[in-house]
Amino acid sequence: MSRKFSFTVPYAVPVEDLHRALTNDELWRSRFAAAATATLDLSHPDGADTIRIHMTETASDDKIPGIVSKVLKSDLVLSRTDNWRALDGEIAKGTFEGATGGIASQMSGTYELRPTAEGSEIEVVGTVQVKVPLVGGAIEPLAEQLHHRVLRSERKHIEQWFATQASA
Q: Is the full-model pTM beyond 0.85?
C-alpha cells in the first residue's frame, strides 16, 4: 500500500529568482559541501534553465527512528533525484524520485513552483511506499515527514545563499 501526501514550501523571493537558484550548480554544491556521507551529481539534460540533481546520503544511526532501525538490513542510504524544467510563464514544474537502501522504500511525485503575494511557493505532491511487512504503513508517514524537513532545510539554505549573493 502507498501513502499520498502534499504540502507547500513558501519562499520570500520571486519565482524567477528562486528558479534561477534551483537550477544553479553552485547552490547545490554549497548545500552539500559539508555533508561528509553525501554524493551529488548535477546535470542539465534538458538544456539551459533546467537541472537534474541526484543526491545520496548515508543516515547516521542517531538520526534513524527506532521503528526503522529494527527493520534495517544494512546502512540506511537515502537517494533522491529532482528534475526541474524551465520556467513556462511564471510556473516551473519538476519531478522527484526517492528510494532507500537498507529498507525497501520508494517515493515519487511532482513539484510546482508558482508565484504568491509574498514571493513564491513550491507545491509538493507525491506518494511514498515502504515495503516492509507489518510496519511499512507506520514508516511511510516518517518518510513523508523527512522529505518535508529536507525541503524546509533546503529553503533555509537557499535563503542564506540569496543573502550571501546580495552581500557579495
A: yes
